[in-house]
Structure formats: C-alpha cells, structure tokens
Amino acid sequence: MLARDKDIARRVKCLITVATPHFGSPVANAVLKRGPLGLPNPTRLLTHYFAEDLGALKDLRVRKDDYPQDENVDGVKYFCVGCDGGPIHRSPVFALTASIGGFGDVRNDGVVSLESASLTNHREGLRTTWPVDHGGAIGWPSGVGETTSAAQHPPPDHQQRYEELLGWLLEP
Description:
Largest sheet: 3 strands, parallel
Number of domains: 1
Oligomer: single chain
Mean pLDDT: 84
Strand content: 5-15%
Helix content: 25-40%
C-alpha cells in the first residue's frame, strides 16, 4: 500500500508486519486452483463465502520472483514478524488450511510460511518469530477447549507480544 500511495507513505516512518504473506500463500493457490477435468476444486467452494474478496485471494497467490508483492519505500523502516504454529497445528481451522496449502515440512502458521512472512523470502529476514498460528497472531485461541474458554474470558496473551513491538518503533 505504501508503494502505491505516496501520500500515505510520506507519513509512515516504520511499518511492522505480522504474519503477512509478502510472497503469497499456497493456501490461496489451492483455493483458486481448478479441480480435475476442470471441475470445481472442493476448496473452491469456500470462495462462495469470499466472493467479494476473490481479487484479494488472487493477490495472495505464491509468487515465483524474488520480490515481495509491494516494493519497499525509501525512508520507511520495515520489521517483519513470522508465526509458527508448530509441526502439529492445534487449531482445527489452521490444521485444515495448512493441509489445503500442502506446506509439508515448511514451517508456517497455517496460512503463511515463515519465509513468505519476511520481505527477503528467507527466515533470516524476520525480526522475530512468534510461537502461534495465524489466528494466535491476533489473539484468537487455537485449541477447541481454548476456544470455548475464550468465548467467556478472552485471553490477553497476544497483547504482551504487541506491546513488545512498540520498542521497535523507537529504535534509531
């Protein structure tokens, strides 16, 4: 967005991205892919719910080049946070999306690989990695039991992670 809107870019000094698929997500590829013999892919049925956002899904397809979706803007500091849900996702939702995306042994949060979360397409380009799935990045609970409990008492775990990001904004 900063690369496309210079008026906004001139007001931004630092941008922190969390679990952002700078190089796309195989989940988007899988959802948009045609099934055998041109039949609808079963995951494509999900697009019925996201009909207005299909353009966004197309933007999230994996890119083969060495450049993130948007170029960096001179004068803006960028920090990238990746999320890693672990080898076995506790969330039924993100276990399913990880399976649909075919991540295999690639470390991911159920939607975005650690590599794609970095502007360099390498884990080393991440400022830090949080041990949560894609939903956990914004405080969504992962396990079925946790989800039930969170409906009554929302967990504040993610708030401390976000408070730690504030220090990055003050770095020279």
